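User: Sequence recovery, please. Input:
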């Protein structure tokens, strides 16, 4: 998959989280799903999703910054806010380059 530019990522993020199409997609996900796709536990949809760690959020299966479709229903799943954050941190950590250490064998 081609690497996205910073402008593409910013545009996708803004498109994915604003406007009537996003709210419509959110409502559809909240109505169709009852369990977190990450931990498989029931999501209490009465909790405030913006502040409560177990509140409802819509998670993009393929993150936007990796080229995921922002408004594609098949790319969006119900998740707890905590699970969404943990998964995103894990995916970002896996993408981060790991430092390598080399030791000259002659110095041993």
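Assistant: Recovered sequence (108 residues):
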């Amino acid at each position: 998959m081609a690497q996205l530019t910073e402008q593409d990522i910013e545009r996708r993020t803004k498109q994915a989280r604003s406007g009537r199409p996003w709210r419509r997609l959110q409502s559809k996900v909240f109505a169709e799903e009852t369990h977190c796709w990450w931990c498989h536990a029931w999501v209490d949809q009465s909790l405030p999703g913006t502040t409560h760690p177990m509140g409802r959020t819509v998670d993009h299966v393929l993150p936007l910054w990796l080229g995921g479709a922002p408004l594609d229903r098949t790319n969006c799943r119900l998740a707890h806010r905590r699970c969404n954050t943990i998964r995103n941190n894990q995916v970002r950590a896996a993408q981060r380059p790991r430092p390598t250490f080399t030791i000259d064998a002659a110095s041993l």
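The longest strand covers residues 56-60.
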